Amino acid sequence: MLERFGIQPTQQRIDIAHMLFQRPQHLSADQVLAQVNATYGHVSKATVYNTLGLFVRHGLINEVLIEPDRTLYDSNTADHHHVYNMDTGELSDIPAGRLAIQGDLGLPEGTEVEGMEVVVRVRSRAAQSADR
Q1: Which residue pairs from 9-12 have beta carbons closer than 8 angstroms and sit at least 24 positions apart in sequence?
Q2: Closest to 17 in 3D by CA, of 33, 34, 3, 2
Q3: Which of 39, 95, 118, 132 could lock 81 by a disulfide, CB 3.0 to 4.6 Å apart?
Q4: Beta strands per DSSP E along the chain
């Protein structure tokens, strides 16, 4: 599979790919590191970060920036958006057809939309009331 995307397979890359593609999921680099090490044996943190970056560049996974200091890696590369629960930290998928952007986006002349990623941030009403 990796070779189809122009990636030289190594044992560590294969192990990381197997773990990521077991099911659609959203994981941090640290979660990937912990799961790979628990299942396949020792892989360094640098290898995990480098491999995740490689997989993103080659289109195997998507990078979802949740907060300035929090990135999750999404094994679902089909067009879709996300709901981020700020209380639980859970990220879930919204099918692309469920959100529609209407009207003129005011794009610079000569440009067109190549892609769009929406993250809807939610919080429970009880948590919002407690913050007030």
Answers
A1: 12/43, 12/47, 12/51
A2: 2
A3: 118
A4: 26-27, 62-67, 70-74, 80-85, 91-95, 119-122
Q: Stretch 35-47: mean pLDDT, rounded?
A: 95
CB 12 within 8 A of CB 42: no
Cα(85)–Cα(120) distance, rounded to whole angstroms? 8
Q: How far apart are CA 67 and CA 18, in angstroms?
A: 27
- The three-state secondary structure class of 119 is strand
State both tokens at 103: 């009207």
Distance CA 94, CA 14 (A): 29
| Tokens standing for residue 79 | 């067009």
Residue type, 17: A
Give me the pLDDT at residue 24, please. 92
Report whether 121 contacts 87 (CB < 8 A). Answer: no
For position 131, what pLDDT does the model report? 65
Question: CA 85 from chain center: how many Å?
Answer: 15
Domains of the chain: 2-74 (1.10.10.10), 80-131 (no CATH)
